[in-house]
């Protein structure tokens, strides 16, 4: 049984590498298409997290599910909680569950028994619609059969217990994203038949609802009469994900993470998909049009196309009017985007719409299709960089080649040291930037950052740089001498009368 499971995991990994829809343009010839995805870094050298972390990031936002990590306590300290994903209802996903294995459990072979009891405790205490069980490096190395335990628990307790076989040592965080999608395909999607399927049902894949930004887009779809059958994973419910195979069309937001899920859902259930973005006015409008067109191709009434055009015209007029006051303040300002994935190209187009100049964008986590979109917008390849060393990034910012940097929290201190405005656009951000309202908010935050008066103050030379006398006084050894004379402290006893005049 163990050999079969190892082979199964190896097959899943190889299948994830051989992904024809990832990094290969469909217009390429067959021989080029067979190359599939590039191999990830060597385990242990994977930048940005391990496979377990990647799987947890993708599945954790399914909000009514209990997520159980089968591992020693330290493995529960993964990075999912620093993502500002929001829920409109259940909060069970915010509770951390772990089997908390010790050396004694491992030595005595009690880890599988401990897992079974943990599943029982969660079921009795929380009664979730499903439990996701995550394998980790330790439990995979000692050979725990989580598939068998989950199957037995599901039969015993009468609820879905889903094994997520993505131990950290098998590869990078992005591989974990894909293995999470495979787990949904194998154990979740298609297990529930909805009784209300309609011609206007869609799936949104690779949308994490960071800072609740999908809530800025969903009202637009509601006004068009389009129902989101499942948003995977942002603010999702287990039953919605399980019945998502009855959607008529799908939009893929983050192709780096879930391209395999979108492609295989198209193959199994004939759900056509397209890659789009809700960042920027033009991108949002294009996404709405593409959704409507796919629905019409799947049998929806053509009148939805007219309603979509009308909605887009109304929303664009409102958004552009709100942006007019920012245009003269930001026109010609230079911005450096140090991010990847969908933001590497969608933000480029969005910022150029208001007159800003993009001096560079990172493409480290972007697919070939993402890079092609950047080339079409920027027209110059030298503005794209795979990665940039902190020293080079600091030099670029300190030489004021950019007026602001948009990135994640890991590089904010480089910008601050270079005395350059910085704005968080990654998962830790506190403001939603999707849709028409989100674009206005993004521009507002950029304007606040660039024109913050603190930058003019910190860029002024220090007093010792202007006045040589002050510099000489500060550098004098007598200034910091340990033997410098200090007035002795005086102590005295105070009587009540000393306070009479107070």
From TrEMBL:
Family that this chain belongs to: Belongs to the NifD/NifK/NifE/NifN family.
Pathway info: Cofactor biosynthesis; Fe-Mo cofactor biosynthesis
Disordered, as annotated region: 468-487
Statement: the UniProt record of this protein carries the keyword Chloroplast: no
Known role: This protein may play a role in the biosynthesis of the prosthetic group of nitrogenase (FeMo cofactor).
NCBIfam families from the UniProt entry: nifE
Pfam family, one: Oxidored_nitro
Nitrogenase/oxidoreductase component domain ranges (all copies): 50-448
UniProt-recorded name of the protein: Nitrogenase iron-molybdenum cofactor biosynthesis protein NifE
Keywords recorded for this protein, A-Z: Nitrogen fixation
UniProt xrefs under InterPro entries: Nase/OxRdtase_comp1, Nase_comp1_CS, NifE, NifE-like
Ranges of compositional bias, category Polar residues: 473-484
Lineage top rank: taxon: Bacteria
Cited PROSITE patterns: NITROGENASE_1_1, NITROGENASE_1_2
């Amino acid at each position: 049984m163990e050999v079969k499971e190892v082979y199964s995991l190896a097959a899943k990994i190889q299948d994830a590498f051989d992904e024809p829809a990832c990094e290969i343009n469909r217009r390429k010839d067959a021989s080029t298409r067979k190359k599939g995805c590039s191999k990830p870094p060597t385990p242990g050298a994977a930048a940005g997290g391990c496979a377990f972390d990647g799987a947890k990031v993708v599945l954790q936002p399914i909000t009514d599910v209990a997520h159980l990590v089968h591992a020693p306590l330290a493995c529960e300290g993964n990075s999912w909680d620093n993502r500002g994903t929001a829920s409109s209802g259940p909060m069970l996903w915010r509770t951390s569950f772990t089997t908390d294995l010790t050396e004694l459990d491992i030595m005595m072979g009690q880890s599988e028994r401990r897992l079974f009891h943990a599943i029982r405790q969660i079921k009795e205490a929380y009664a979730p619609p499903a439990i996701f069980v995550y394998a980790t490096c330790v439990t995979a190395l000692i050979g725990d059969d989580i598939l068998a335990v989950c199957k037995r628990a599901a039969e015993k307790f009468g609820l879905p217990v889903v094994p997520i076989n993505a131990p950290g040592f098998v590869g990078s965080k992005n591989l974990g994203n894909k293995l999470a999608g495979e787990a949904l395909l194998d154990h979740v999607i298609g297990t529930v038949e909805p009784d209300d399927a309609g011609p206007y049902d869609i799936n949104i894949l690779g949308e994490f609802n960071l800072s609740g930004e999908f809530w800025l887009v969903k009202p637009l779809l509601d006004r068009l009469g389009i129902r989101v059958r499942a948003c995977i994973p942002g603010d999702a419910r287990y039953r919605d994900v399980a019945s998502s195979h009855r959607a008529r069309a799908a939009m893929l937001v983050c192709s780096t993470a879930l391209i395999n899920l979108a492609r295989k859902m198209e193959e199994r259930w004939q759900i056509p998909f397209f890659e789009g973005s809700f960042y920027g006015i033009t991108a949002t409008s294009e996404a709405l049009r593409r959704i409507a067109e796919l629905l019409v191709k799947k049998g929806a009434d053509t009148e939805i196309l007219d309603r979509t055009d009308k909605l887009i015209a109304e929303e664009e007029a409102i958004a552009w009017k709100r942006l007019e006051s920012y245009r003269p303040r930001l026109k010609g300002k230079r911005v450096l985007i140090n991010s990847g994935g969908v933001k590497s190209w969608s933000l480029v187009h969005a910022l150029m719409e208001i007159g800003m100049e993009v001096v560079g964008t990172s493409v480290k986590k972007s697919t070939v299709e993402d890079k092609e979109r950047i080339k079409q917008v920027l027209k110059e390849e030298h503005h794209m960089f795979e990665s940039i060393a902190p020293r080079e990034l600091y030099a670029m910012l300190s030489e004021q080649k950019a007026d602001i940097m948009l990135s994640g929290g890991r590089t904010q201190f480089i910008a601050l040291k270079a005395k350059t405005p910085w704005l968080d656009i990654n998962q830790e951000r506190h403001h939603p930037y999707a849709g028409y309202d989100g674009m206005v908010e993004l521009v507002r935050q950029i304007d606040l950052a660039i024109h913050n008066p603190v930058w003019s103050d910190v860029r002024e030379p220090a007093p010792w740089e202007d006045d040589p006398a002050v510099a000489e006084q500060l550098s004098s050894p007598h200034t910091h001498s340990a033997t410098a004379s200090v007035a002795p402290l005086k102590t005295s006893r105070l009587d009540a009368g000393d306070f009479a005049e107070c």
